[in-house]
Specification:
By secondary structure, the chain is mostly helical. It is built from three helices and no strands.
Length: about 60
Amino acid sequence: MKNTDLTKATILIERDTWKLFRNLCKLNETDASKEVRKFIKQYIAEHSHQIKNLITKGDKND
């Protein structure tokens, strides 16, 4: 993945939850960004049946 293919996202999450998540990632030799990207890919795969609707309507939220 090239850096030019990346975008930044802002999420709101409780400070303690984020801290715990980051520490768990570190403990498991990974990082928060990688795990969030993994979650997003998994979510897309689980909802892939809805992709056709997005294409038909057009994605106006990017």
